[in-house]
Amino acid sequence: MDRNNKLLTVGQFAKLHGINKKTLMWYDETGLFHPAVTNPSNGYRYYNYHQSPVLETILLLRELDVSINEIKEFMKERSAANLERLLDEKTRELDYKITHLQAVRETLCKHHQHMVTLLEMDLSVINIIEKDECCLVTVDIKEDTSFEEEVEMITAETGKYQLGRLHDASYGSMISIASLKAGNYNGYSKLFIEIPFLTAAPGLHVQPGGRYLQAFHKGSWDKIPESYQKIFAFAEKHGLSLYGYSYEMGINENVVDNIEDYIVQIEIPVY
Description:
Elements: E1 7-9, H1 10-16, H2 21-29, E2 37-38, E3 45-48, H3 52-63, H4 68-76, H5 80-120, E4 127-131, E5 134-140, H6 147-159, E6 170-176, H7 177-181, E7 188-194, E8 205-207, E9 210-218, H8 224-237, E10 245-250, E11 263-269
């Protein structure tokens, strides 16, 4: 049997390509993809085998979210050069979506871990943990930097990394160990932005890998010196030296309304 001359019904051709026959009928009605033959007496549509590659190309482009109008324009001047250009453009868009979704997944995992911490860990206990080195985007601030200014700087900085939403990343503040030891518990010098999959580049802050003291502060900031005093006492008792910065991050902002229930995770590198 000559399969190139074999005519297939709408149902047969749709089944061959794993789609609904209504999709084929809609493609015909919109002028995107016509059957090889339409019976004038009953309107039945028939397709032949050599139309398969064309339909597969259309289905691929639809899978890449190419609009019907864009596909129509391509079909008018179908060529290897035009298909290469279109696929290159859509592949770049797809790569961006994949990276974005990976970042969202990473952020969701972090939020999930925070919830596990809240539900399962004794937040009064100071722990020694291991962390991998990572790169952070930072924004310099001063003690008199207003909240409005901080928001503007954070928004501007995250915009450089094409984040869809602010919560596609994690945020926190940094205060140097020197400031803490001097009793300046308000001496925050940087806000940090933890963007998933960020690689080393000039201007980024490298958060060192290795051992960290991890503690949690619950309540308003005016009592945070008490939490740091406990951290210092723990470090001295265990012969640990603190260095660099303390990295503070709120871990339950999305489930509390009262500042007294607010919990800050504190992590400080030690040796």
